[in-house]
Amino acid sequence: MRGHRRHRSPGPGLPRALPGPPCRAPPTAWRSLAKVDAQTLLPGNTLRFRAGGRWTGQLSPKGSGTTAEPVVLTSYGSGAKPLIEGGGVVDAAIRISDEHDIVVAGFEVTNSGSGTTPRIGIGIGATDLGAVTGVVVRDNQVHAIQGAASDGQASNPSAGGIIVSARGERTTGTSMSTTTRSGCR
């Protein structure tokens, strides 16, 4: 899958990943977030989501890029940004965990629902990895994130539109560097 592009198009039925050329044209596009999340992406891979498309659940890709060849999640076609709706049933609508050199660009992201669970639009986290570099979040519209209050507070620091967390033991430590958020609203 190195350097290949995959297209995502929402639709009924099972996801399709048919044998054939490395670039999946829209008629053979994967049709569920679960299909994407089941793959391990390689440096240079690009996943394109159809403009105007709508997906519910969590987008949680696996696999990192390199400085020269990041993994890219973006859109194709014209129209509204692809919508990733957490629906209030996932902690984050888009979750990047323990990955580096990955670009998330051009999505509309929501995550609201009833209950008291803290919610996140785009969550970026790393644990015990040392320095995490090359995570870029740009040109996304993140809104309608219904976070939960904690201990009577009006807000919860673990809920919000875009949350970045770096955690680790003192021996390893984890830090985020070159994490970019631009053009997001």
In short:
With about 180 residues, the protein is mainly beta. Helices cover about 5% and strands about 35% of the residues. It contains one helix and 15 strands.
Provide an overview of this structure:
This protein is mostly beta strands. Helices cover 3% and strands 37% of the residues. It contains 1 helix and 15 strands. The strands form 4 sheets. The chain has a 6-stranded parallel sheet with strand order 1-2-4-7-11-15, with no helix packed on it. A 4-stranded parallel sheet has the order 3-5-8-12, with no helix packed on it. A 3-stranded parallel sheet has the order 6-9-13, with no helix packed on it. Strand 1, helix 1 (33-37) and strand 2 (46-50) form a beta-alpha-beta unit.
Strand numbers in spatial order across the main sheet: 1-2-4-7-11-15
Largest sheet features: 6 strands, parallel
| Number of helices, counting only DSSP H or I runs of 4 residues or more | 1
Spatial separation of the terminal alpha carbons? 32 Å
Question: Whole-number radius of gyration?
Answer: 16 Å
Structural class: mainly beta
Tell me the β content: 35-45%
What's the order of the H and E elements?
A: EHEEEEEEEEEEEEEE
The backbone outline, from C-alpha atoms, is globular
Helix content percent band: under 10%
The count of DSSP E runs of length 2 or more, i.e. the number of strands, is: 15
Which spans of ≥5 residues are poorly predicted at pLDDT below 50? 11-22
Chain-averaged pLDDT: 79
Helices and strands, with pairings:
Layout lengths: L4 E4 L24 H5 L8 E5 L3 E3 L14 E6 L6 E3 L6 E6 L4 E4 L2 E4 L8 E8 L2 E3 L2 E4 L2 E5 L14 E8 L6 E3 L3 E3 L3
Parallel strand pairs: 1-2, 2-4, 3-5, 4-7, 5-8, 6-9, 7-11, 8-12, 9-13, 10-14, 11-15
